[in-house]
């Protein structure tokens, strides 16, 4: 976590509270100081918000196809981050292979084609990260010491799963899938999957040190 501590710290905003995912009011400090509160997205080939492309067009950057290595992965430190995420990426990918095979293979196909595109345009940094990226998901969110109000994730496709894993030392936390009427004990080491666009969910924690990857 030391390698991304400054990125987590810089991610917290003080703008209007409607931007709750990074607003300071939804984060709390770690009691031992080992976890830096914050929320960042990490990706070997990330489309900037508002510039997403559906499908694979002509694969020409001049036509607007311009994924980029996320800020967290740029430089030598970024390569260490990609390596540190490999274990969790393998576990999540194995779980998705069982739970949602179609989504698993769609993710594999996308990353292979992104690798071919990056190779064609000699994007060495992107090629490196795609080669060592172990998760079938193209983007991983790292969330530290944040509570989440009831919400859905409208940018997710209805048929897609989001897999949320947690680690750390913290007090009792319940994940509530509200419109399903289901609650889960969200202990350290837990892995939950759902259609986050369809399932309204929330969790609340105010003590301890915890990390969620999604």
Automatic annotation (TrEMBL):
From the Swiss-Prot or TrEMBL record, what is one GO molecular function term?
metal ion binding
Keyword Iron in the entry? The reply is: yes
| Protein's UniProt keywords contain Oxidoreductase | yes
- Cofactor(s) this protein cannot do without: Fe(2+)
Q: Where is the 2OGFeDO JBP1/TET oxygenase domain?
A: 80-201
Sorted UniProt keywords: Dioxygenase, Iron, Metal-binding, Oxidoreductase
InterPro entries referenced in this protein's UniProt entry, alphabetically: 2OGFeDO_JBP1/TET_oxygenase_dom
* Name of the molecule in the record: 2OGFeDO JBP1/TET oxygenase domain-containing protein
């Amino acid at each position: 976590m030391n390698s991304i501590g400054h990125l987590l710290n810089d991610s917290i905003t003080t703008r209007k509270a409607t931007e709750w995912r990074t607003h300071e009011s939804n984060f709390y400090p770690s009691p031992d100081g080992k976890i830096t509160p914050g929320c960042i997205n990490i990706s070997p080939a990330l489309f900037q918000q508002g510039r997403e492309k559906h499908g694979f067009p002509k694969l020409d950057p001049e036509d607007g196809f311009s994924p980029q290595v996320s800020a967290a992965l740029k430089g030598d430190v970024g390569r260490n981050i990609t390596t540190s995420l490999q274990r969790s990426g393998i576990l999540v990918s194995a779980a998705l292979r069982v739970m949602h095979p179609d989504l698993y293979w769609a993710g594999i196909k996308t990353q292979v084609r992104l690798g071919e595109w990056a190779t064609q345009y000699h994007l060495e940094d992107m090629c490196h990260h795609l080669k060592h990226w172990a998760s079938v998901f193209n983007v991983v969110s790292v969330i530290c010491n944040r509570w989440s109000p009831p919400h859905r994730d409208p940018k997710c496709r209805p048929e897609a799963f989001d897999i949320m894993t947690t680690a750390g030392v913290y007090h009792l936390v319940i994940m509530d899938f509200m419109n399903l009427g289901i609650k889960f004990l969200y202990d350290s080491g837990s892995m939950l999957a759902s259609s986050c666009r369809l399932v309204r969910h929330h969790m609340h924690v105010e003590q301890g040190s915890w990390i969620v990857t999604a």
